[in-house]
Structure formats: C-alpha cells, structure tokens
Amino acid sequence: MLTGLNHLTFAVTDLNRSVAFYQNLLQLHLDATWDTGAYLSLPGLWLCLSLDPLRDPEPAADYTHYAFSLDAADFPRFVERLRSARVQEWRDNRSEGASFYFLDPDGHKLEAHVGDLASRLTACRQRPYAGMKFFDDL
Q: What EC number(s) is this enzyme filed under (predicted)?
C-alpha cells in the first residue's frame, strides 16, 4: 500500500542554473550533487534534478504542476523575491488560499500555496465546484 509521495524528479537542461534556482531563490537545502544531478530537500520533500539535454523547455499547456507550502506571513516576501528575480508567472490564482504560480528555469510549472487540503475542502463546501461530491469518513 502506498504511504505517501516519495520524491519528485525534474529533468533539467542546465544543472548549475537549476541548482542555483532551487537552492538560492526557493531556498531548498542542497543535499548532494553529481555530474548529472542533484538532490535538494525541504522537510517532507525530496527533489531530484536530473540533467536531460533533450528536455523540451516549453511548458505544457495543461494544468499539471507542483505546489510547495509556505506560511501566510512569508507569502508576500516570497512572491516579491521571485518577482524581483523576474521569475515567469504562468497563471493567476483562482482558488482558495494565496497562491503564486511560476516557472522554474526549465519551464516546470510550480506553485507556492498557503493552505492545505483541509482548508481547500472547507472552502469547497461553501462554494463547491460544478458536480462536486464529498466523501467523508463516517
């Protein structure tokens, strides 16, 4: 049985640039590097960067993305740091909780989000999406 999300691996075209982005700008902890990759982490998250010169840097047109959590008090400063670094935004927030949607140097779609599943479900109970059903443990 699955017990959780183990790690994320992002194919990158310039390892040094990506390590700098995740370590310096997003402030993940750099755990290890090698010729074609790196491991970075946050509490509860292991991120692998894997050099792939064939990666298409154009972001996909779909909504697939990876969201990081942060505290509400840190949100404005985080967004300002990314905007000051001219990080590209890819979407406006349309849901509960503060969110900032941005691209990494290889076009991976990322989000910084204030909130969790419980806060999202609370908001959805007040304003459900079309056809939404809830499955509560009884």
A: 2.5.1.18
